[in-house]
Design brief:
Elements (H helix, E strand, L loop, with lengths): L5 H10 L12 E2 L2 H10 L7 E5 L5 H9 L2 E6 L2 H9 L7 E5 L7 H5 L6 E6 L2 H13 L6 E7 H8 L9 H9 E9 L4 E2 L6 E8 L10 H12 L6 H7 L8 H10 L13 H10 L2
Parallel strand pairs: 2-3, 2-5, 3-4, 5-6
Antiparallel strand pairs: 1-8, 6-9, 7-9
Length: 283
């Protein structure tokens, strides 16, 4: 199959009585050439195992399968799974999994996988942040991951300190990975056309890790507490944060001093390396 126009997408959905669900972010690529370009931007190579999250009607899946050694594609919508199988929309060597990527044990699909394992995903807004967080936990097993996101979410990942979009999501990514927007897509690239622009973001584990093994969870607790009340100083945000230094103001101020952070600073003004030092000082 070399072409999958929006008209064919509409015809399949209508004939099968399928209704797209906004909460699942069901906006499908319809351009095979664009799908092939995205597969290239994701760095897919002949020896790769690719785990795709969000099969849709398989336009990107087929592009991935043309390049990769093996593709495992996860789709949550049972109606789409039936359409993919009964309409013969996927190559025979693609493993289609019906399930929720937020609930599935993604590690199980890695198994004794080859050295190069990549994730490619089209993430709805409602599930983007928790899925991105899961991928950070899998970073030691992945070569990289490329995700289609609402542009505003991508900006929150790559935001620098002091910017409006800078928050806990940016800090956690900076401490664990490098990320770069590869291309931005407009609504007409999808069916149905979404109301927002999208970004295709590629993410790599940091070559030189900043965190010790198993440290991310404890750092995350402090970072999320720090940004929970953005308009407050770090001292007051951390005092309100559940379990951070027991809310002890003196302990928090000592930790801030040890990290080189002023007691009047707000989280949005502090760079990730200082927030890491703060989390470590808080123990």
């Amino acid at each position: 199959m070399t072409d999958f126009p929006a008209g064919r997408t509409r015809e399949i959905l209508t004939r099968r009585g399928l209704y797209l669900r906004r909460e699942l972010g069901q906006n499908f690529l319809t351009d095979d050439k664009l799908a092939d370009r995205l597969a290239g931007l994701a760095g897919i190579e002949a020896g790769d195992l690719v785990i795709e999250i969000g099969t849709g009607l398989g336009v990107l899946t087929r592009a991935l399968a043309r390049r990769a050694r093996r593709v495992v594609s996860i789709e949550i919508d049972s109606g789409l799974v039936a359409a993919l199988r009964e309409e013969d929309l996927l190559p025979p060597d693609v493993e289609l999994v019906h399930g929720d990527a937020l609930r599935l044990d993604l590690k199980a699909y890695l198994g004794d996988a080859p050295a190069s394992v990549r994730v490619v995903a089209n993430l709805p807004y409602s599930a983007a942040t928790p899925l991105l967080r899961r991928l950070l936990d899998l970073r030691h097993r992945l070569t990289d991951w490329s995700v289609m996101l609402q542009r505003e979410v991508a900006r929150r990942i790559v935001a620098p300190p002091g910017s409006r979009d800078y928050g806990s999501l940016a800090v956690l990514h900076h401490l664990t990975v490098d990320a770069q927007v590869q291309i931005e897509l407009t609504p007409e690239n999808f069916f149905p056309a979404p109301e927002v622009n999208s970004s295709f973001l590629r993410v790599w584990p940091r070559r030189e890790p900043l965190l010790a093994p198993g440290e991310l969870a404890s750092v995350e607790k402090v970072v999320r507490a720090a940004f929970a009340q953005r308009r407050k100083t770090l001292v007051n945000s951390l005092r309100a944060g559940s379990g951070v230094a027991g809310g002890d103001r003196d302990a928090i101020e000592r930790a801030l001093a040890a990290a080189g952070i002023g007691i009047r600073e707000r989280a949005e003004q502090v760079d990730p390396s200082q927030l890491l030092a703060l989390a470590r000082a808080l123990g």
